[in-house]
Fold each of these.
Amino acid sequence: DGGITQSPKYLFRKEGQNVTLSCEQNLNHDAMYWYRQDPGQGLRLIYYSQIVNDFQKGDIAEGYSVSREKKESFPLTVTSAQKNPTAFYLCASSMLPVRPGDEQFFGPGTRLTVL
Amino acid sequence: GENVEQHPSTLSVQEGDSAVIKCTYSDSASNYFPWYKQELGKGPQLIIDIRSNVGEKKDQRIAVTLNKTAKHFSLHITETQPEDSAVYFCAASGPSGAGSYQLTFGKGTKLSVIP
């Protein structure tokens, strides 16, 4: 059963702690993305990666870090430098080359709450 | 960069009526326009998309129209059903500085279909 999995579904973190969100895909997609979604807002791009060992900042990268050591995995770390980390985080993937018409498939999301 | 405006933010219709959601975009280089449906607590799913060389596309009860001159595109849902209730996002894909294409999303429309 192909798709994108994100874990955990709900995550609670104390202020000042780093936390890592998992994203795995078995669609054999080269490109992967992380978006942040806040209530009443669209999806804003945090980071994206087109190939292994390479990634680029999106519109709101400050306070986040990523790695892409394997094609199937693109974990996102929310660091203590992120001032307002409570949000719904969505991972997506698409085929390469990344161009108009390459559908992005989304995972089920992780809801992060900072206590 | 690209800017996508989406209206209305909320929309309530009676079951069986039509629903129309409108989006405008700013970057004339954008040439791919997908629409996503997001149910509560889930990731967005692509429902229909259109490319710049096409003016209209239909898929059963869903249609999308594109006016490149005016830089706006719309989603039309006919014969609405309660299961159409969700948040709908429009997006536009244009070239990014890294030589790839990124999706820029509207802020979403919460559609409620009243039985």
Note: Chain B touches chain A at residues 1, 4, 6, 9, 30-32, 34, 36, 41-46, 49, 51-52, 89, 93, 98, 100-103, 105-108 (CB under 8 Å).
Amino acid sequence: DAGVTQSPTHLIKTRGQQVTLRCSPKSGHDTVSWYQQALGQGPQFIFQYYEEEERQRGNFPDRFSGHQFPNYSSELNVNALWLGDSALYLCAGSVRGSTDTQYFGPGTRLTVL
Amino acid sequence: LAKTTQPISMDSYEGQEVNITCSHNNIATNDYITWYQQFPSQGPRFIIQGYKTKVTNEVASLFIPADRKSSTLSLPRVSLSDTAVYYCLVGDVFSGGYNKLIFGAGTRLAVHP
């Protein structure tokens, strides 16, 4: 158990809708990264938050946005959903400046119909 | 970030030793090599990390030759529960904590009775 929680576990949406996914990193982890994992592929980096600001971003459109709260928890928002957004969304916590690994949560399975 | 190449899939039997090799010809001086394990519908789990020579923990061993252009993850006496996807990642863990992880497709290991 990596101590990272994500909610909800599963989610079904229709095209055009908006979705918000939530993540609470392991205690003491101040940096949260989000990844998208399509079926049969490796996770793809979306963005990373530290001190409530987006610090890095992968190759994802502006429809993907996020937020980090003072308690380090984070949200991932996706607007105007389309079928290709169906995936497992993973969040990972880490400590800024540490060489320690990132700890992943169990993910949220998003299905867009 | 250095690109990695690893076999798409491997098969083994319970009790055997499994070696998964990863190629990373363009590894940089500050890059470390990290391996993650992922079970279906779960987040990746850190297995082992190393810079050079050999690293061993309670789960696996990591062998890195002197030129560091490849590495081998060794799983001793695998069991059915080791069936998973294994990812090799290469990156600079000291880059101010900007530890964005770049996953490839991974190696799907199937352990048979």
Note: Strands of chain B lie at 9-13, 18-23, 31-38, 45-50, 53-56, 61-64, 70-75, 84-92, 107-112.
